[in-house]
């Protein structure tokens, strides 16, 4: 968890709105540090309030767009008191940070193998496949593999199932002696972005939570994204990747800096500093820089604010616990599990 810097960067000091809001956020961070300890020195409430304060602060510093930073600043300025400003952080934690972390956790099922026809045969199918976005994940994965040359977009590792099932890919790998591994169909905006589908767990709060994230995205200035990704459009190729690292886009089109929340993840320098995406076929669009930018901003806020460690802690405890404690010791875990479903706000 990184404390908020004492001053705004020069580019943000030009905005009186953001500058005034940031001063208020520094006040709630200081108030969070003074939160009294619980029984037997329990500091969980203090840590939670620090995360909420720093989520707001780092949204002002690292928001996905200037409009997003201004939107958060106006919300902070209009809050009546310190407690209401904590609630703003709580709302963004539950409905922006946790939203993009939903797809993390247990390893997904490896990608299903592509159909056996050769590259040329598959190429003939492309125009028919792309009259509209793919309607399901299996079709999206097949087209993404074709677009990316059956390789991970970052490491260039060949997809294991493609090598096993496609003779041309197997021949390429055998000749080049490239690395082979499992790839997965990753959505930049997760499947839960589908506004017409309730959450898979059958909880009644699913549609409410989805509506809240889209309200946030629209208030950040991205007014067309709901239409772009609604229903089966969530599988459009602009939203499909096969990688996990956080990306930041420099000035070249479809070229990104590869960054990590934890430096030790790249100690062996197995990932390049810059990666450029290219489609093997012009009919197959590359991942959207806008979608990536929104997700990357969330990742920066998540790690800098301490939200990532906070979430990981409770997710591990939820996996390990079998039954709730009868003495109330599990109350924090239960509250965390229910919070994103029951917390509501008017934006």
Q: Overview of this structure, please?
A:
The chain is mostly helical. Helix content is 50%, strand content 5%. It contains 14 helices and seven strands. A three-stranded antiparallel beta sheet has the order 5-6-7. A hairpin with a 6-residue loop joins strand 5 and strand 6 (255-259). The longest helix is centred in the first third of the chain and has 20 residues, at 82-101. The two termini are 27 Å apart.
Keywords:
two-stranded parallel ribbon; 7 strands; 50% helix; mainly alpha; 347 residues; single chain
Outline of the structure:
This protein is mainly alpha-helical.
Order of helices and strands: HHHHHHHEHHEEHHEEEEHHH
**Based on the structure, what is the oligomeric state of the protein chains?**
single chain
Number of E strands: 7
Structural class: mainly alpha
Question: What gap, in angstroms, lies between the N and C termini?
Answer: 27 Å
The outline comes out as globular
- Strand percentage: 5-15%
Q: Helical stretch count?
A: 14
Q: Please give the order of strands in the largest beta sheet.
A: 5-6-7
Largest sheet: 3 strands, antiparallel
Integer-rounded radius of gyration: 22 Å
Fraction in helix: 40-55%
Which spans have pLDDT < 50 for at least 5 consecutive residues?
Answer: 103-123, 197-205, 342-347
**Overall pLDDT, averaged?**
77
């Amino acid at each position: 968890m990184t404390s908020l810097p004492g001053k705004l960067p020069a580019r943000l000091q030009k905005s009186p709105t953001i500058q005034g809001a940031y001063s208020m956020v520094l006040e709630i961070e200081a108030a969070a540090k003074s939160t009294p300890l619980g029984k037997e020195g329990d500091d969980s409430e203090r840590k939670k309030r620090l995360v909420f304060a720093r989520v707001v602060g780092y949204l002002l510093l690292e928001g996905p767009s200037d409009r997003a930073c201004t939107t958060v600043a106006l919300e902070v300025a209009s809050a009546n008191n310190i407690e209401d400003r904590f609630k703003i952080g709580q709302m963004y934690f539950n409905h922006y940070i946790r939203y993009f972390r939903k797809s993390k956790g247990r390893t997904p099922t490896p990608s299903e193998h592509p159909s056996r026809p050769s590259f040329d045969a598959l190429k003939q199918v492309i125009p028919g496949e792309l009259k509209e976005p793919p309607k399901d994940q299996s079709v999206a994965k097949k087209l993404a593999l074709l677009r990316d040359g059956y390789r991970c977009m970052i490491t260039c590792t060949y997809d294991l199932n493609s090598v096993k099932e496609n003779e041309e890919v197997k021949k390429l790998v055998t000749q080049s002696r490239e690395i082979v591994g499992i790839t997965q169909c990753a959505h930049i905006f997760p499947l839960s972005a589908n506004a017409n589908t309730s959450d898979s767990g059958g909880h009644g709060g699913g549609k409410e939570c989805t509506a809240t994230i889209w309200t946030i995205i629209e208030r950040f200035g991205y007014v067309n994204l709901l239409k772009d990704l609604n229903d089966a459009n969530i599988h459009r190729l602009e939203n499909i990747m096969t990688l996990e690292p956080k990306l930041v886009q420099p000035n070249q089109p479809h070229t990104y800096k590869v960054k990590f929340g934890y430096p030790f993840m790249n100690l062996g320098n197995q990932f390049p500093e810059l990666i450029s995406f290219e489609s093997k076929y012009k009919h197959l669009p590359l991942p959207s820089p806008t979608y990536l930018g929104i997700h990357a901003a969330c990742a920066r806020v998540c790690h800098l604010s301490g939200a990532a460690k906070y979430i990981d802690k409770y997710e591990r405890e939820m996996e390990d616990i079998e039954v709730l404690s009868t003495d109330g010791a599990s109350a924090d875990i239960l509250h965390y599990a229910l919070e994103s479903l029951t917390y509501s706000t008017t934006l």
